[in-house]
Design goal:
- InterPro entries: APOBEC/CMP_deaminase_Zn-bd, CMP_dCMP_dom, Cyt/Deoxycyt_deaminase, Cyt_deam_tetra, Cytidine_deaminase-like.
- Pfam families: dCMP_cyt_deam_1.
- It catalyses: 2'-deoxycytidine + H2O + H(+) = 2'-deoxyuridine + NH4(+); cytidine + H2O + H(+) = uridine + NH4(+).
- Its EC number is 3.5.4.5.
- One of its GO terms (biological process) is pyrimidine-containing compound metabolic process.
- The protein is of the alpha+beta class.
- It has a single domain (about 5-135), classed as 3-Layer(aba) Sandwich (Cytidine Deaminase, domain 2).
- It is about 30% helix and about 20% strand.
- The protein contains five helices and five strands.
- Strands 2-1-3-4-5 form a five-stranded mixed β-sheet.
- A hairpin with a 2-residue loop joins strand 4 and strand 5.
- Bound molecules: tetrahydrodeoxyuridine.
- Tetrahydrodeoxyuridine (THU) binds near residues 46, 48, 59, 87 and 93.
């Protein structure tokens, strides 16, 4: 699989999930798709709630799917949103991605027409705190 076709596959999965988003409040559907260490793709969408803070981002849904389906590493993630601006992951989701990714993991940001820009996770979340911090402090095994 070429890099381009791998990204196309993530884009298609994210768009399909985005089409199923539950967004009665923001009307801003988002889709996310992850490629895991085995090459499998896991997608999610945002799911809002009448109690607004209980809403979940698309990235959180995709990560949940990956873990439930047996994936353990994010090799690449693509996020697709609407509008003219880049739909970059919120701060909380950058940290959620961080748990399962490496500094160089690609984060592709797309609009309806395709990928607009690609970042590394480290660009979006520099000097991040992660599992390594706990390991070196002897806090987790
Ligand atoms: N949202 C995501 O799902 N992912 C992002 O990367 C940015 C924002 C959602 C949260 C909320 O349902 C809606 O977009 C508007 O903020």
């Amino acid at each position: 699989m070429t890099d381009a076709s791998a990204i196309d596959e993530l884009f298609a999965a994210a768009r399909a999930a985005q089409a199923r988003a539950h967004v009665p409040y923001s009307r801003f559907p988002v889709g996310a798709a992850i490629r895991d260490e085995a090459g499998r793709v896991h997608a999610g969408c945002n799911v809002e709630n009448a109690a607004y803070p209980q809403g979940a981002c698309a990235e959180a849904g995709a990560i949940s799917r990956m873990i439930a389906e047996g994936g353990r590493r994010i090799e690449a993630i693509l996020v697709v949103g609407e509008g003219a601006m880049l739909c970059t992951p919120c701060g909380g989701c950058r940290q959620r991605i961080r748990e399962f990714a490496r500094p160089g993991t690609p984060v592709h940001i797309a609009g309806p027409e395709g990928v607009r820009r690609s970042f590394t996770l480290d660009e979006l979340l520099p000097f991040s705190f992660g599992p390594d911090n706990l390991d070196t402090a002897g806090g987790a095994s």
